Amino acid sequence: xxxxxxxxxxxxxxxxxxxxxxxxxxxxxxxxxxxxxxxxxxxxxxxxxxxxxxxxxxxxxxxxxxxxxxxxxxxxxxxxxxxxxxxxxxxxxxxxxxxxxxxxxxxxxxxxxxxxxxxxxxxxxxxxxxxxxxxxxxxxxxxxxxxxxxxxxxxxxxxxxxxxxxxxxxxxxxxxxxxxxxxxxxxxxxxxxxxxxxxxxxxxxxxxxxxxxxxxxxxxxxxxxxxxxxxxxxxxxxxxxxxxxxxxxxxxxxxxxxxxxxxxxxxxxxxxxxxxxxxxxxxxxxxxxxxxx
Length: 293
Ligand SMILES: [Zn+2]
Prior knowledge:
Number of helices: 8
Strand order of the largest sheet: 4-3-5-6-13-12-11-8-9
Largest sheet: 9 strands, mixed
Number of strands: 13
Order of helices and strands: HHEEEHEEHEHEEEEEEEHHH
Bound molecules: zinc ion
């Protein structure tokens, strides 16, 4: 179907999905741009004319993934997890061809929720736009298979992502991930605003064992593979230029994103990249609590 029609279809899907209260705004909305302009790198709320704080804008970039990753279903779940913190408001860019041309300056943080297979989409210009945004102080979040994005620029992506996918052919002795199932996510002893006060939790997800890289990172959560008995990072942070990066290996599907602990970790990590102060954990409300499930 034509691009515009496809976009409308997706917009409609998001609006009428499992999160009926959410409202998806589009990145070219002039009003949105006016309100949010100039907040890049500052992250925290900006004042509007009536004196109220405007939410930090977060842009989820999606639109392509491995066939087993149903991004049309997981994107609303991701949005819901982030917007449980009312200080953040999510927009969705679901056309990767547009990343190069998208003005990221209105956003406090960009969430990568895709794995591209065409090296030209988002392409060099898309990568450079994103890299420039983070260098200048924008926040960056990687969710699950976003570690495999920009595989064509793997060496340049690694300093930005901290760790990247090792590729379709695992090195000797390595495997992609444990079989989908239950495992414990252990909050490490590192004192960090994202995980301060958080308890370790159990989830049902894919335990990723497929990351590689040498960039210094701070691991905030880790899990032990049932396959090889080794520890693997599930969430970690790093700095790139003036920007903050939160890399989140969890989130294979909708139930994984709705897990209380996993959603809390994702939300707090995103807030941190957006420059927001951490909220006391006791005041947070998870999607699981919200749905009553
Ligand atoms: Zn997966």
